[in-house]
Design goal:
Order of helices and strands: HEEEEHEEHH
Strand content: 25-35%
Pfam families: YjbR (PF04237)
CATH architecture: Alpha-Beta Complex
Number of strands: 6
Shape: globular
Largest sheet: 6 strands, antiparallel
Structural class: alpha+beta
Protein name: MmcQ/YjbR family DNA-binding protein
Strand order of the largest sheet: 1-2-3-4-6-5
Helix content: 25-40%
Distance between the termini: 30 Å
Oligomer: single chain
CATH class: Alpha Beta
Number of domains: 1
Number of helices: 4
Length: about 120
């Protein structure tokens, strides 16, 4: 999977907005100002940081060498996934979906309802 493929998938989510975090040289994808994905190069490899439950984050890190704690984000919840590694694209898409859903739950009810219209 390429960074471009991932960005297209993320931006297809309802309410998704893209911005650049210049300090981290990363593209942030947010829904209503809540971050759900950060696409960047890590060690010269395409990668994305995604939010999961701490339990899932730990399990993924144990099972896949291409999943690591995110450097600039809460390491209990945020994992960096290499896009060119061993994790199948379908699992990366699932993790994007899960991260987006977690972001949605943090939004006020009225904002959530507007997103599903």
């Amino acid at each position: 999977m390429t960074s471009s493929d991932l960005l297209v998938y993320c931006m297809a989510k309802s309410g998704a907005e893209q911005s650049v975090h210049s300090d981290w040289k990363a593209t942030q994808i947010k829904v209503a100002d809540v971050l759900f994905a950060m696409v960047k190069e890590v060690e010269e490899r395409p990668a994305v940081s995604l939010k999961t439950s701490p339990e899932l984050a730990e399990l993924l890190r144990q099972q896949h060498s291409d999943v690591r704690p995110s450097r600039h984000l809460n390491k209990a919840h945020w994992s960096t996934v290499y896009l060119d590694g061993t994790l199948p694209d379908s699992q990366i898409y699932y993790l994007v979906d899960a991260s987006y859903q977690q972001a949605i739950t943090l939004l006020p009810e009225q904002t959530r309802q507007q997103l599903v219209k």
